[in-house]
Amino acid sequence: MSRAPHLLICVTGGIAAYKIAMVASHFVQTGALVDVAMTASALRFVGAPTFEGLTGRRVHTDLWHHPIDSNQPLHIQLPSQADAILVAPASANALAQMAHGLADDLISTLLLVADIKKLVVAPAMNEAMWKHPATQHNIEVLQRRGVKLVGPENGWQACRTVGAGRMSEPDAIISAVSAMLPAA
Ligand SMILES: Cc1cc2nc3c(=O)[nH]c(=O)nc-3n(C[C@H](O)[C@H](O)[C@H](O)COP(=O)(O)O)c2cc1C
């Protein structure tokens, strides 16, 4: 008997975090099992109850929370169980952590465990952050490593300007993730 596709969504601290609620809901509606992890900054933008209500599952925020029903810590268990891992919005900080292998919270640590072939990353930030040489270098490192990137696009930004760095729309993110998930 086939099992439900399993998606892990890693929400980091960008103002576009609210749009990822639509992505989570979409995959729940298609029959996927959706786990969500959030950074401390992401929790400033969207509350865990939003994703818990949409997915029917506990949101993971704490590297040090050990699930009692598992012999593996969360940072091993979550990426191992998932068929695909979406990082969206991917903050400039999250991109830097990924590029340099930093691991000081749940999401950065599990991304160091994750199979690169499972990853879809949707950067989202202000144009100055996106165009900064540090961010551009980090993006090049991730691309060379084979990480699948979606966007970002040019467009309206939360700082009320138009420029590069706007997160791709949920439909584009959903298409990229769907291509990585097994059929429901
Ligand atoms: C109102 C506000 C909006 C922000 N929007 C973004 C954003 O869209 N992208 C980004 O990379 N950082 C943004 N930041 C900064 C990040 O939240 C900050 O760098 C944070 O440390 C990221 O942490 P994380 O990667 O652990 O989630 C924003 C900060 C504030 C206060």
**Residue ranges: pLDDT <50 for 5 or more in a row?**
none
What distance lies between the first and last C-alpha atoms, to the nearest angstrom? 11 Å
| Strands in their spatial order, largest beta sheet | 2-1-3-4-5
State the helicity in percent bands: 40-55%
Number of domain units: 1
Task: List all distinct small molecules, including ions and cofactors, that are bound in this structure.
Answer: flavin mononucleotide
CATH architecture: 3-Layer(aba) Sandwich
Helix/strand/pairing class, anyone? alpha/beta
Task: Figure out the total of helices.
Answer: 9
* Strands, count: 7
The CATH topology corresponds to Rossmann fold
CATH homologous superfamily annotation = Flavin prenyltransferase-like
The best one-word shape is: globular
Calculate the mean pLDDT score and round it.
95
Defining traits:
184 residues; binds flavin mononucleotide; five-stranded parallel sheet; globular; alpha/beta; Rossmann fold; two-stranded antiparallel ribbon; 19% strand; 9 helices
Describe this structure in words.
The chain has nine helices and seven strands. The chain has a single domain, classed as Rossmann fold (3-Layer(aba) Sandwich), CATH 3.40.50.1950. With 184 residues, the chain is of the alpha/beta class. It is globular, with a radius of gyration of 15 Å. It has helices at residues 17-29, 42-45, 48-55, 74-81, 92-100, 106-113, 127-131, 133-145, 170-178, and strands at 6-11, 33-38, 84-90, 119-123, 148-149, 153-156, 162-166. Helix 1 packs parallel to helix 3, helix 4 packs across helix 6 and helix 5 crosses helix 8. The strands form two sheets. Strands 2-1-3-4-5 form a five-stranded parallel beta sheet, with helices on both faces. It has a two-stranded antiparallel ribbon with strand order 6-7. The model has no long low-confidence stretch (mean pLDDT 95). 43% of the residues are buried. It binds flavin mononucleotide (FMN). Flavin mononucleotide is lined by residues 12-16, 39, 41-42, 91-94, 124-125, 129.
